[in-house]
Every structure is written in structure tokens, then in C-alpha cells.
Amino acid sequence: MRAVVSFVGAGPGAADLITLRGAARIGAADVVLFSPAVVDPTWLREQARADAELVDVTRLGADELLEVYRTVGSRLGRVVRLLAGDPALVPDLREQRETCEKLGLDVEVVPGVSPVSAAAAATGTTLVEPGADTVVSVEGVESVRELASPGRTLVVHAPAARAADLAEALLAAGLEGDVPVTVAYKVTWPSEAVLRTTVAELAAEVKKANLWRHAHFLVGDTARAARPRPGYRVVEGDQPARWTARARRPKVAGEARQTWPRRGGSTGEPEAQQAEPVVEQQGAEAVQAEEKAVAVKRGTKAAAKKPTARSPRTPARRGAKKA
């Protein structure tokens, strides 16, 4: 049996985004190497064993870190090295693994939630979609000019203080000034800040928010703000059509077309209390004759249905004999 070093992805910052396997490795470790910028020390103390040693790696040099690995290896103990986000995106992971293997230590890598995924989730967007199905992750601003492309999502991890340099590199790569950019700073932490802006306004917005430490910049069309689905456009003031039932009467042959006065027209005249149809002179007599005929016909039917007066019946006596 040999000592084991577990490189555990600590996720984007929130304690509940560390995987169950990662939390189990922390609870079983003899030594936990961490950075306060990666995980909350108070939460870490609650999860680790009471006799576990917590070491801040930001206070250690390369030789001191190597000595920690040697000491734990001699005790056949367990070491957890917490890494920001997902270990797959840590540039020096290969070097750290090779160092541990040379010391005769077993190495394990526990995946974690990437801050890039957390940034996309915080804005409700995705990193890939039709027309932009390539994601390129860049560390620093130096290689942005060569990697930026209009049909690509670019994720840049760099100090927010270099936002002006980043915007200049993106414009030099051929991107337009209105290309969307999302700035994700300490996502899932209590001090989280998420900015939606464009390449042209990037430097000004970051300066206004007073951001200067490392952040993730999501550049590309996938970083645009949420909008209605294609083919659907909401116009302010639109009202649904109102359907009303209108009484219809039989159309008379030769009847003139009827026009109805406008309600609240541009003439500024008050609306009529009883809007009556204006019938053109031609064919007016035919309409009146037809209406009179209908009225007479209705009166005849009503008279026919009227009951006639009857004399009251005299109730017959029970048991009366027939004459």
C-alpha cells in the first residue's frame, strides 16, 4: 500500500458544487492543500477530520510543497490537493502528477464543476449552439488575436484589469464592436458579479464595476442576452384581436351597400350615442318595403297563435247517473 494524492476539483466556489466524491476525499484526508481563493476555509474545516492538517499552498514555495508530499508519503497517508474548478483545465496538472509519481505516490484525479460552466449557467446561456459549435478556452490575453473568430465561442481567463487589452485584441482579430461579451467574476460566491456588455463597451463596463482580479470572459454570439425564439417578435402596445358577434339579416336583392360611421374619427366629432347605418338613396324604397312585409307577416302569425276565450267548465258530480 502506498500514499495517495487526490487532485480534487473544488468547483467554481460554492461549497455545494463540490462533488460527493470530492467531499468524501476531503473527509478522509490527513493533509488538505488548498487556497482561500478556491474554497472557503471555514467550510473546509467543518468537512475535514478534526486531526487533519490544512495547508495554505499560497504560502508555500515549490520546495516546501515537495517536502509535504515526501512527508505524507513516508507516513503512507492521504493528501488532497484542491484545484479551482475542474482539474482538466489546470495547466500545471501534468507536472504535479509527474512529481508525485516520481516520489512513489499513487495519484487520483477527481473531476469538478468548471467555472466556465457556472458562468454560462448564471446567464442562462450555452457555450455551443448551431452556427457557433466550437469553444476555445484561453489562459491570458496574449493568444486571443490568433484564436478569436466570428463563428466561435471564446472563453478567456484573465485579470479583469486587462479588459482594455482584451477588447483591443478582439477588434484586431476582426470581431465587430457589437459582439456580445459576458464577464463572470467569482461566480457562485457571495461576491459574484456578472456583466453583459459588448466588445466596444467592455473596458468601460469593467472599470465601472471596479473589477480587477481574474475573471472569465465569454465572447461570442452565444453570450448574447436571452431573446424570443426566432420568428416571434413582441411589439409593445400590441393587443389581441377582439371578436364580436353581430346580428345578420337576410340580404335583399338589389340592396345598397351599408356604411357605418367611424367611432372617434379624426374629425374630432363626439361619438354618436346610437350609431345607425347610413343607407344610400339607391334602393332605399326596396329596403323599407321588405321590412314592412316582414312586420306584417310576423303580426299575422302572432294573431293566429293567440288563444280564443273559452267558457269555464263546470265540474261534474261524482256518481251522477246518465240520463
Summary keywords:
12 strands; five-stranded parallel beta sheet; five-stranded mixed beta sheet; disordered C terminus; 28% helix; 9 helices
What is the gist of this entry?
The chain has 9 helices and 12 strands.
Topology:
Elements: E1 4-9, H1 20-28, E2 31-34, H2 41-47, E3 53-56, H3 62-75, E4 78-83, H4 93-102, E5 106-110, H5 115-123, E6 135-139, H6 144-147, E7 153-159, H7 163-172, E8 180-185, E9 193-198, H8 202-208, E10 214-219, E11 258-259, E12 278-279, H9 284-305
Parallel strand pairs: 1-4, 1-5, 2-3, 2-4, 6-7
Antiparallel strand pairs: 7-10, 8-9, 8-10, 11-12
Query: Counting H and I runs of at least 4 residues, what is the number of helices?
Result: 9
Number of strands: 12
Could you say which structural class the secondary elements and strand pairing correspond to? alpha/beta
Stretches where pLDDT is under 50 for at least 5 consecutive residues are 227-252, 257-282, 319-323
